[in-house]
Design goal:
about 15% strand; three-stranded antiparallel β-sheet; Arc Repressor Mutant, subunit A; homodimer; DNA-binding; alpha/beta; elongated
Chain lengths: ~325, ~325
DNA sequence: ATTATTAACGAATAATTGCTTAGTCAGTGA
DNA sequence: TCACTGACTAAGCAATTATTCGTTAATAAT
């Protein structure tokens, strides 16, 4: 082409032509160049210009597309490191449907690593379901450690067996914490945590590479209460103090600020850090958990989120 | 990922995710693979699956897009080697607007070739305009030759000066034909064409690598008549014989079949071949030329077309 | 008129993508 | 049980695409 200078419009026209030939007609850049009588580099520049100038619109015709967009918006809005949004199944009331599979997938991904990693686990039915989904594998190089006690209020150890099951499923050393979730007093908690094995468990948990945690709602009838973690009196106190949700037993208010006193002064779980010292992935969905999830995000207690489409939609709004 | 076998739906979901990450979020395949926890090969397969399954829709937001589609449809419908459709300018009546620039561009493309080429030129205001648009350049390696005579009915040589101007613009040897467009008799035509220089001109034209030709309409008041190429009587005869259009003086009917007798027995232009022996690009637009263009395409007198959006729209319909 | 600045280009080079091969592993059915 | 199937990964080559760099032409600013 002669060196007659072209207007920007002409250049955009050319870009549009090149973009059409490339993206719509599936020519490669050599063919585009040949058909337009320009060098391949010029064709490449035009093609990339067409993309830069948003002449080319790409869209994905699949329900997943909406989930991906929601995930991206959540990632940006809350500065997350990772976010995955699954399709909501409106025909099911299962609170773990969908997100458990995703959480299991992400766990397996970590376990497939050659490098030994330490994975910490919190509470929640979703996590329990996720662990159930896991494919058995052989990962003696990894360690899985609980962030919360496994002693039920009655003293039995059957309570939080998720760590045991996980460890057995992937044949990795596992470290449950032989303490109650909430001690009867601050002093008792300190005594528990001062024990050698518990101390080393806590140290291991604090060195974790990744953590998966459930997010619990605190309202009239939370799982915390029905599972017997806390008493009705304790719940009333938390609600009075503004508690809206909890992660590994630590209750926080609407802003994500940890509640002072109440059960928080007796929680035996590993103390969370803000921001978390390791990638901490929250796994939760559902309208009843919405305020709790929002607060956990606002308080930056989690750096990743696995949720479903309807919950994500509410969160970005 | 575990070896739990996945349903086709799940696989499409994955393909959609991969496609979204790749095409919408502009990750490369390594990043897609990392984010989905799969190998790059799997990511590649999913991305290409998403494209194959038409999950990814690409569209071009630019007026040109429509022109490109029209060009493709014309290419397929008439088996063309090349086709270019420009935007119609509804505010202008200039019959050469747009297509002259495109024709000039395509000519320049040929001239930029290192290899010596022979370009043949037909008649038409569009071609004249195109040549005017050409940027001067230095191409002594090429040759430009006329397909039609340059003698006006009054014997002056000023008539078809397009070849002269072209040759001068690009500094290439040029070969006008010193004969009238239509001889007064078949015998006169034969005498003209038997002349040494004319014979070699014709031979040169027949060896051309590419030809640009106008397409003339034959109706009540064609340029052929107003320019004095033919008389009213001759025109009446052509119309009576079913002539609808012409290329380099050769009149044809609706099907593109060359008219027997009439002026065709006296045309001094280089005889066209069917299909053309070289890439022959028709340059024409406008409603009044529509039947002529259609006939030229039907008769396969041209292997390429340069036209505008509204003409192309009518041609594909 | 002459000199900076900008824009565009081709050539070379780097990065990415497409594709093939070989090997592994789990589920399947004889 | 055992070959068979299918899907995967790793490796690596070939093809394609993106970027960088030095040059040149056009444009703007002295």
């Amino acid at each position: 082409m002669a060196k007659r200078s072209k207007s920007g419009q002409d250049r955009l026209d050319d870009a549009a032509r090149a973009g059409w030939l490339y993206y719509v007609a599936h020519n490669n850049q050599d063919e585009v160049a040949e058909k337009m009588g320009i060098s391949r580099q010029s064709a490449q520049r035009l093609v990339s210009l067409a993309m830069r100038e948003r002449l080319i619109k790409v869209r994905l015709d699949h329900p997943i597309a909406h989930c991906m967009e929601l995930a991206q918006q959540l990632t940006e809005k809350y500065g997350l490191e990772s976010c995955e949004v699954t399709l909501s199944d409106p025909t099911s009331d299962d609170p773990a449907i969908g997100i458990a599979e995703v959480a299991a997938n992400q766990m397996e991904r970590y376990f497939k690593s050659k490098e030994p990693i330490v994975m910490a686990l919190g509470t929640g039915r979703e996590l329990r379901e996720a662990v159930k989904q896991l494919t058995p594998m052989n990962c003696p190089q990894h360690k899985v450690v609980s962030l919360v006690g496994n002693l039920a209020p009655d003293g039995s150890a059957s309570f939080n067996d998720v760590i045991m099951r996980l460890g057995e499923t992937i044949k990795a050393p596992h470290y449950p914490m032989a303490v109650p979730v909430v001690a009867t007093s601050s002093k008792e908690r300190d005594i528990f945590c001062a024990q050698k094995p518990i101390k080393s468990n806590i140290a291991l948990a604090k060195s974790a590479d990744v953590a998966f945690v459930g997010i619990g709602e605190i309202n009239e009838a939370p799982p915390m209460l029905t599972d017997g973690f806390i008493t009705q009196t304790e719940l009333d106190g938390l609600i009075a103090a503004g508690a809206i949700g909890e992660v590994v037993g630590w209750a926080f208010d609407n802003d994500g600020t940890i509640i002072k006193g109440e059960t928080n002064s007796r929680v035996a779980s590993v103390q969370l850090e803000q921001p978390p010292s390791c990638h901490t992935i929250g796994v939760a969905r559902g309208n009843n958990k919405l305020p709790a999830i929002q607060a956990a995000l606002a308080g930056r207690w989690i750096t990743g989120l696995i949720t479903d489409e309807s919950t994500a939609t509410a969160l970005v709004g």
